[in-house]
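Today's session is about reading a structure prediction critically. Students often jump straight to the picture, but the first step is always the sequence itself: look for stretches that repeat, for charged clusters, for runs of hydrophobic residues. Only then move on to the predicted structure, which in these notes is written as discrete structure tokens rather than atom positions. Here is the chain we will use throughout the hour.
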Amino acid sequence: MLSNTSDELLSKIEKIANLGSYEVNIPSGIWSGSDNFITIFGLPKKEQYTEEEFHAIVHPEDFEDVMGYYQHCLEQQKDFNYEYRCVRPDGEVICVSSRSKITFNNDGTPQKVVGIKQDISGHKKTERKLQQLNKLIQRKDEILGEVAHDLRAPLAQIMMIATFFEQRLKGEDQELFQLLKQTCLTTGDIISELIEIAQLEKFGNELNRAETEVNEVIKNSISCYRFKLEEKDLQLETSFTKNSNANVDGKKVRRLVDNLLSNAIKFTPEGQSIKVCTQRKDGKIWIIVDDKGIGIAKKEIPFLFDSSVKTQRRAGTSGEPSTGLGLNIVKQIVDLHEGDIKVESKINKGTKVIVSLDQKIN
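Below is the predicted structure for this chain, in token form.
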């Protein structure tokens, strides 16, 4: 027997965990429960209860499943671990989690059940609310994609009209339509990146991994940005590891490199330099983009990957527009590859972005 002190401690623990202990004599069908067990189920307090009284508290819609599972546990000599609904005498429906041990005689005859039943109604309500929230988030992403796609057509029409008048006007009127075209281009970039973020959030776990020469991915990206590099008279240095084969999603890595390189070009003043490196260490492939640009304030670095922070939507050194969404996409791609990203920066000294991706080489 437990001492009175132990009984009091057990009672306190049961109340804290919102659970109660119970014991059933299987041959007789008589069972008993702790004080908190009786409180949870709203039962009249007494020493013993009958099998019929237990049946009465199980929710009618769950009764057949509960008894079927119980019979299965008896036949297979397994523990009874199950979640189901109960109805208190006052009519309140609660969800309980039963964790119980069934003991058997040497001949396999079931003798006793000892266990606990925990009221998990609050947890289940939270779970349902979370499911509803996830559905709302999913619908939000769907609406975002639909709206973004719908905006592309009228935006293209505005762009076409602006181009038409730009070619036929001069002076300030022509500049106004050039500004309109630039606004259309910027808006188009925002729409594209919003769609990409929504797709990453919805299908993010769908990586198409294949053995990829990461150096070649980076070289192809550099080729596409050659004109912008020359336009700003930027010197680009590269330092590649000899073997950069990695089992990664090549398209997503290309998107990652494009965004990092685009940012470096955008925020590096004319005549400065950018360095791109790859390394292999610690079982990962590393991509490093190091520029001599305008840098980022230390207090802003923790918010670089948050698309909702407007301070990141700053113009480039030559007035290039920025959506502020590129690094959010980079972070999601890095996370999908079970990697890490680190940013080191000083104002007017430059920024170094260090990315590691899990190689997962076959």
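Discussion point for the tutorial: The longest strand covers residues 93-104.
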